[in-house]
């Protein structure tokens, strides 16, 4: 029997507020355990929650970005379960009346994923297990989240990972979350089931909890699909349960039986009034929405003549996109946008990731990159030398022209000087000349390498190629 997977994803996305959802405690990551806590987020008797206005505005921003329907009135509910990391014994969330219903995340021009809902909720704390003891850190308890729930419409592990990348790009782009997977700002639960191909009935689903990397999402879903296929093919049944993914072994492992909504005994939180979101507030938040990633990507393709891949890479992060556009502008039209894109994608972004610098205060400024690329464009330096100049710019902060002058890196474009080196290399390598004259044109690469090495990369590569071919042809017959 042939099976097809049915996948639904629930993403918990931390909202980038300075304080928690219902109290004034800091949301800054990395503080000592239990230092960002107070009577409210610890659930002390007699305390009352006060809703964070900024968190709600961020949530509305996401709903508008995905085209969801925002309720005028929504309800906060208590989701009750008992676990050490939940200090109140319940989580404040939204149940049957969430603030947003529906919506669509556009993954690319040809693929989108429909949503069931988005709701606002507070995070739980964090259990820390050691060999002889377990500890609880409540710094994260009360952190504001939105939970984004897809319809069960995703058909493969690869599609699931692509959706998550697009969603993360979107929340970062509109400025509501840093989307940091390592710090837990962007986490995913995957509901996975299989059914016979062509069937409209859903199979028994299992939920894989707390996946915090795109690679592990893909690995976990792939493994779980195969596990369920093997169970059914052998005559066994899939048991509905909550699973954890062990990244080391690449397996999903049982955590507990899967709870249903009635197990949590939801009821409206008596300490919180209805959440009212009127049309005036919607309009005010909508005015703050920036250009969305797909629209920006289409504009980059249209205005700058970029291939789709480059446009998508540049628009995954709004600050990177802005850096690219400012760099293009700084070249004054003297460098093709494609060249600028190549350097931003291939050099600037990896450097920024490695050194963890902010694109709003980059180590290499837009003007600095543009100046470097203009030196290549006018033939002052070669691409190879430009890489050395770029490294020196990172180390010293100097402008590229000063580095070129100080290190004597100006590209040689004098034909007589190039001919002298070319002839010397040809005289030293008669066997390779014979190979070229016999039709083995690949040997040109050998000669170019030798010439550039002899000139320490300073000779104009275009002139080197032209002169080399002429001098080789002159040796025929």
Written account of the structure:
It is a single chain. The protein has 477 residues and is an alpha+beta fold. The chain folds into 3 domains: 3-285, no CATH class; 291-407, no CATH class; 415-474, Arc Repressor Mutant, subunit A (Orthogonal Bundle), CATH 1.10.10.410. The chain contains 15 helices and 17 strands. The protein has helices at 53-65, 157-173, 214-233, 279-286, 293-304, 308-314, 318-330, 337-355, 366-377, 383-396, 400-407, 415-428, 430-437, 443-454, 461-473; strands spanning 3-14, 69-70, 73-74, 77-80, 90-93, 100-101, 104-108, 111-122, 126-129, 134-137, 144-150, 186-196, 206-211, 241-246, 251-257, 267-268, 275-276. The strands form 4 sheets. Strands 1, 2, 6, 7, 8, 11, 12, 13, 14 and 15 form a 10-stranded mixed β-sheet that branches. Helix 5 (293-304) crosses helix 6 and helix 12 (415-428) crosses helix 14. The chain is elongated and about 90 Å long.
- Per DSSP E runs of 2 or more residues, the count of β-strands stands at 17
The tally of helices reads 15
Number of domains: 3
Q: Which residues form runs of ≥5 with pLDDT under 50?
A: none
- Overall geometry comes to elongated
How many angstroms does the end-to-end distance come to? 71 Å
Can you give the mean pLDDT? Answer: 92
Structural class: alpha+beta
| Strand percent estimate | 15-25%
Task: Let me know the largest β-sheet.
Answer: 10 strands, mixed
Q: Percent range for helical residues?
A: 25-40%
Global Rg = 29 Å
């Amino acid at each position: 029997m042939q099976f097809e997977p049915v996948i639904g994803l629930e993403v918990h996305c931390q909202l980038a507020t300075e304080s928690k959802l219902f109290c004034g405690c800091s949301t800054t990551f990395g503080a000592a355990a239990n230092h960002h806590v107070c009577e409210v987020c610890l659930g002390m008797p007699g305390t009352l929650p006060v809703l964070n206005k900024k968190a709600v505005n961020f949530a509305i921003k996401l709903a508008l970005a995905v085209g969801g329907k925002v309720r005028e009135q929504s309800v906060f509910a208590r989701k009750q379960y008992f676990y050490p990391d939940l200090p109140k014994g319940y989580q404040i969330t939204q149940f049957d009346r969430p603030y947003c219903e529906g919506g669509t995340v556009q993954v690319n021009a040809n693929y989108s994923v429909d949503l069931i809902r988005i709701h606002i909720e507070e995070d739980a704390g964090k259990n820390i297990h050691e060999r002889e003891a377990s500890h609880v850190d409540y710094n994260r308890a009360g952190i504001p989240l939105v939970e984004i729930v897809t319809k069960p419409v995703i058909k493969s592990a690869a599609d699931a990972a692509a959706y998550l990348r697009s969603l993360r790009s979107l929340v970062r782009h509109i400025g509501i979350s840093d989307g940091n997977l390592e710090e837990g700002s962007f986490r995913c639960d995957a509901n996975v089931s299989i059914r016979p191909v062509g069937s409209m009935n859903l199979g028994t689903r299992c939920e894989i909890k707390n996946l915090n990397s795109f690679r592990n999402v893909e690995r976990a879903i792939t493994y779980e699909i195969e596990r369920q296929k093997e169970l059914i093919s052998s005559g066994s049944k899939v048991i509905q349960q909550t699973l954890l993914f062990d990244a080391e072994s690449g397996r999903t492992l049982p955590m507990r039986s899967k709870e249903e909504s009635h197990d949590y005994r939801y009821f409206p939180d008596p300490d919180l009034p209805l959440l009212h979101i009127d049309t005036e507030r919607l309009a005010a938040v909508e005015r703050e929405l920036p250009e969305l990633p797909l629209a920006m990507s289409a504009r980059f393709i249209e205005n700058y003549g970029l291939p789709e891949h480059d446009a998508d890479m540049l628009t995954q992060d709004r600050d990177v996109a802005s850096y690219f556009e400012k760099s293009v502008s700084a070249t004054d039209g003297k460098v093709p946008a494609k060249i600028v894109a190549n350097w931003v994608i291939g050099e600037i972004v990896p450097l920024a990731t490695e050194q963890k610098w902010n694109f709003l205060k980059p180590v290499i400024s837009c003007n600095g990159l543009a100046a470097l690329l203009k030196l290549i464009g006018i033939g002052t330096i070669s691409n190879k030398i430009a890489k050395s100049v770029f490294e020196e710019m990172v180390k010293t902060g100097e402008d590229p022209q000063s580095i070129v002058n100080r290190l004597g890196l100006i590209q040689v474009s004098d034909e007589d000087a190039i001919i002298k080196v070319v002839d010397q290399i040809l005289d030293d390598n008669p066997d390779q000349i014979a190979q070229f004259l016999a039709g083995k044109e690949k040997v040109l690469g050998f000669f170019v390498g030798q010439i550039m090495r002899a000139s320490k990369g300073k000779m104009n590569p275009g002139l080197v190629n032209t002169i080399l071919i002429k001098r080789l042809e002159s040796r025929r017959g």
